[in-house]
Amino acid sequence: MVTKKRWGERMVMEQLINGLTIGIIYALIAVGYSLVFGILRLVNFSHGSVYAFGAHMSLLFISMEFGIVPAIIASMIFTGMLGIAIDKLSLEPLRMKGSKPIAALITTIGISYIIQNMLMIVFGSETKSFPRLFNYGTVRIFGVNVGSTQIAIFFISLVLLVALTAIIHYTKVGLAMRGVEQNAKASYLMGINVNRVVTFTFFLGGVSAAIAGTLVSGYYQMVSPGMGFMPGLKAFSAAVLGGIGILYGSVIGGLVVGISETFAATYLGGSYRDAVAFIILILVLLVRPNGLFGKKGIKKV
C-alpha cells in the first residue's frame, strides 16, 4: 500500500515538473501577445507563426555549424526583425490610415498564413529533426529524475522573463512603453516616438518567440511549419487567462495551462490535453471576464 502511494506521489511530481516545463514555454509565448496588446490593444495572431519561424532559423544556423548559442542569438535577431517587418509593412500603414481594429486583427491572421506558407516553400512541409539541446543527463529532484533539458528550458525561460520585466520597469524605453500603453496621444505630445516604441515591442515579441520555438524544438527534437498553431492558441489562452496585457499574468496563465494539460494527458488521455486548456479559460472568464489579474475599464486613448 505504501509502495503504491509513493508511486502515485512520484507520478504527480513527474507530471508537475513536466507541466512547469511546458507552462513556462507557454508563458514565454504569451508574453509576446501581452506586449503587443498592452501597447496597441491588438491581438497579434501571427505570433504563433513567428514562433515557428524562430525555430526554423535556429535549425538553419545550427545546420550551418554556427554552434548552439550563436545559432540561437542569430535566430533571435532575425525573428525580431521579422516582428519589426510585420509592424512596418502591414500594421503601421493601417494605424496611419486610422483603420478599425478589426482590420489589423484580420491582417495578423493573414500574415500568420503567409509566414507558414513561406516556411513550407523554403524548408519543406515535412517535419524535420532538431538536435537535442542541453543534453547532460538527468538530475534527481524530490525522488524524480528530471532531464537536464527540462531544467535548462525552465531557467532560460525564467531568466528571459525576468529580463523582459526589468526592461519594462527599469529602463527608459520601458518607461516609454508604459507611457504609450496608458495614453499614446499624451506620450506623443511629450516627445515619445510612438511608432519606434511599437517597433521595439514587436522586436521583443519576436525575440521571446524565437527562444520559445528553439527550446520547444530542442525538447521534442522536431520542427515543422505548422508547429506554432496550437502552442500559439494555448499561449493566447494563457495570456487571456492571466489578464492579457499584464506581463506577470501571462506567466501565471502559462503555468496554469501547462500544468493542467499535462495532468489531463496523464489521467484523461492525450486526446483531451488540448481541450482542457480552453475549458479552464472559459470557466475563468465566466467568473472573471478580464482574467485573473486583468483590470476593469482599460481603454486605449
UniProtKB/TrEMBL annotation:
The chain crosses the membrane at residues 20-40, 60-82, 102-124, 144-168, 197-220, 235-259, 271-287. Its main location: membrane. CDD domains: TM_PBP1_LivH_like. InterPro entries: ABC_transp_permease, BCAA_transport_permease. It is found in: Cell membrane. One of its GO terms (cellular component) is plasma membrane. Keywords: Amino-acid transport, Cell inner membrane, Cell membrane, Membrane, Transmembrane, Transmembrane helix, Transport. GO terms for molecular function: L-isoleucine transmembrane transporter activity; L-leucine transmembrane transporter activity; L-phenylalanine transmembrane transporter activity; L-valine transmembrane transporter activity. It is a multi-pass membrane protein. One of its GO terms (biological process) is L-alanine transport. Belongs to the binding-protein-dependent transport system permease family. LivHM subfamily. This is Amino acid/amide ABC transporter membrane protein 1, HAAT family. It comes from Anoxynatronum buryatiense. The lineage of its organism: Bacteria, Bacillati, Bacillota, Clostridia, Eubacteriales.
